[in-house]
Amino acid sequence: xxxxxxxxxxDNMSKKSLFNALLSAEKKYDTMRExxxxxxxxxxxxxxxxxxxxxxxxxxxxxxxxxxxxxxxNGDVYKYNSYDEYEKDMNNEV
Length: 94
Hints:
The radius of gyration is 34 Å and the shape is rod-shaped. It is an all-alpha fold. The longest helix has 46 residues. The protein has three helices and no strands. Keywords: Coiled coil.
């Protein structure tokens, strides 16, 4: 959104008209700045929220290998005397 300013229209204005044009331009500038600051703040909040959500999601998710290692370290493992016992137990779980 690019606007072109016609500076020539201000060349022949009276002081009163110039003053009114200045007041109008300042008001428009302030309004635009406030709107832009609100949009920037909202976008900044969204970015912060999404970063936090992603960080929590990454830290929360554990791979199957991580879970297996954790279970092994906690002693939460199945122990079998032979492969046949293991195979029989696995077939019973299905």
